[in-house]
Amino acid sequence: DKTVRLWVVASGSCEAMLEIHSNQVTSVAFSPDGKRVASGSEDKTVRLWDVASGSCEAVLEGHSRSVTSVAFSPDGKRVASGSGDKTVRLWDVASGSCEAVLEGHSRSVTSVAFSPDGKRVASGSWDNTVRLWDVAGGSCEAVL
């Protein structure tokens, strides 16, 4: 559905329901400190949520197709998003601005993940490749 739900694992109860996306939610990720959640949606946006208040802090727009995957960097300062538009975008959490658009996949990007040191992003795609990207320079370092 179009919601993000926060669940209490011990009790199995829904603690909060975050509703603002205009289409299906496809991906969610907690920030490393647990204070924020990023959500990606078929509405082509990434939204950043404050867990304590349940409020939407930012709407990150730029993808031209569904957002299929989101991930926070290990320091929580960036979010990576993958999309059906064949790109990976890197977002600054504090400002909400897009820092880089990583292009190279020939089909939809289905998964994104930061390396433990935050210096690289891996992206998986329906083109049957995994690309490793340098965060600082935005260049593709390897195609697997």
Task: Please describe what this structure looks like.
With 144 residues, the chain is mostly beta strands. It has strands at 3-8, 13-19, 25-30, 36-41, 45-50, 56-61, 67-72, 78-83, 87-92, 98-103, 109-114, 120-125, 130-134, 140-143. The model has no long low-confidence stretch (mean pLDDT 94).
- Beta-strand share of residues: over 45%
Major beta sheet summary:
4 strands, antiparallel
Structural class: mainly beta
Helix count from the secondary structure assignment = 0
| Portion of residues within helices | under 10%
Uncertain residue segments: none
Oligomer state equals single chain
Within the largest sheet, what's the order of strands? 3-4-5-6
The CA-CA distance between the termini, in Å, is 34 Å
Q: What order do the helices and strands follow? A: EEEEEEEEEEEEEE
Rough shape? globular
